[in-house]
Amino acid sequence: MKTKIAKIFPLVLAALVLAGCGVTSELVIPVTGATVTKQETVRVAIKSKVGSVVVNINGAGSYYDQTSGSYMGRFSKVANARISVENGFLSINGQTGKGRYRSSRVMMIPEEGALINVDGVNYRGQMEFISNGSDITVVNHLGLEDYLCGVVPKETFASWPEEALKAQAIVSRSYTIAKCDENYQKDYDLTSPGDQLYGGASAEAASTTKAVYDTAGNYLEYNGKPLLTFFHTCCGGATEDGEKIFTYVRFYPSGVTSPYCKGCKHYSWEYSISAGDLAAKLKAAGYNPGNASTLQITKRFKSGRVAEIKIGNAALNGEQLRKAVGYDVIKSTRFSVSKSGSVYTFKGNGWGHGVGLCQWCTKGMADQGMTHEQMLSHFYPSAKLR
Asked: Is the domain of 110 the same as that of 233?
């Protein structure tokens, strides 16, 4: 896999991750001598700019200053340690270290597969704590396959058919690799939940872990690069061209007709809102619709999704409208609108942005006996499975 996902950090920290899904080799942690497994490393920000976190580790390990790469010390276990920031430096239970024990960036590395518990959630791998001056960002460093074992059960249902779970595993892996290539010079590659839902080891399920194992290393390539594989809950009958929804995307597989998600409860939906409430929501989002007494859909994409809409004095696109009013009520931009008195009624199909894989379609396709390869070929035309 020729990507930048494998990185070089001070000492060997980025090369060391704990036992998990896909094992490729073994290394030994310096100083402690603990044997651990190696995977390609993913860095996931599980907490961004928070005041503090509580950490527990039921086992021994080491910690390092991540800025200099120097060894700071060893712990036999960590019990209810509240990590926060004092005067720009990381503190534990309100106390900062001195000399080489004073740091604004610390990596904790447990031994022998011990899990790190942050705010009640168990995680595999290592945990980095970064001071932002007054708050902290917490970054989980772990193997790619370990990470996916905590993603797939959060992004789909562990009870779904095996082929649907395999499709999700590959799509999540491809998305991860593409983001790692994009962000390798930054402090982290992905965020949770911003990029993908991630529940750590606490979320793992046997069926989804098997899907990750069974597809280990497989990802999608498009135009010679790992594909940033967008996916969504329910397409409502058709997906959309990537560049139509995400303007920063170039050369993306085209949208397709896909009738397999009719079993989803979000396939059809309806939402009503008064003109006054609609105007208030748009104003709060920074638009100037006036009293929103008029509404006109001025342009649609080929999938039927709303490309442009004018509400009173405000012109915006469909996704901007969803963001302003609420993603959970205007569930997609594949909608029509009617008005009765001062009340608008939106009637639509599907849930999500509509680009790439439709998760509920994969269940429908699996129920019809289709393979994960067929699903991926359907939703990402011309992409190559590697």
From this structure: no
Element spanning 4, H or E: none
Range of the domain at 302: 268-349
Cβ–Cβ under 8 Å, residues 320 and 306: no
In-domain check, residue 59: yes
Residue 226 shares a structural domain with residue 289? no
For 14-32, give the DSSP string. GG---S-S---EEEE-TTT
Pair 308, 331 in one domain: yes
pLDDT truncated to tens, each residue of the chain (386 aa)? 444 443 322 222 222 222 223 223 333 333 334 433 456 899 999 999 999 999 999 999 999 998 888 999 999 999 999 999 999 999 999 988 877 778 999 999 999 789 999 999 999 999 999 999 999 999 999 999 999 999 999 999 999 999 999 999 999 999 999 999 999 999 999 999 999 999 999 999 999 999 999 999 999 999 999 999 999 999 999 999 999 999 889 889 999 999 999 999 999 999 999 999 999 999 999 999 999 999 999 999 999 999 999 999 999 999 999 999 999 999 999 999 999 999 999 999 999 999 999 999 999 999 999 999 999 999 999 999 99
What is the C-alpha separation between 141 and 153, in angstroms, rounded?
A: 19
How far apart are alpha carbons 196 and 3 in whole angstroms?
A: 20
Determine the Cα–Cα distance for residues 63 and 106; give it in Å rounded to an integer.
7
Q: 151 and 250: one domain? A: yes
State the Cα angle at 166 between 165 and 168, rounded to 5°: 65
3-state secondary structure of 211: helix
Residues 339, 381, single domain; the answer is no
* Of residues 84, 79, 105, 106, the one with CA closest to residue 95: 84
In a domain, 104, yes or no: yes
Rounded distance, CA 49 to CA 38, Å?
29
Are residues 147 and 198 in contact, defined by beta-carbon separation less than 8 angstroms?
yes
Could you give the angle at which helices 162-183 and 359-367 cross, rounded to 10 degrees? 150
Task: Give domain status of residue 260, yes or no.
Answer: no
**What Å distances lie between residue 119 and 79, 93, 122, 226, 233, CA to CA?**
12, 14, 9, 33, 28
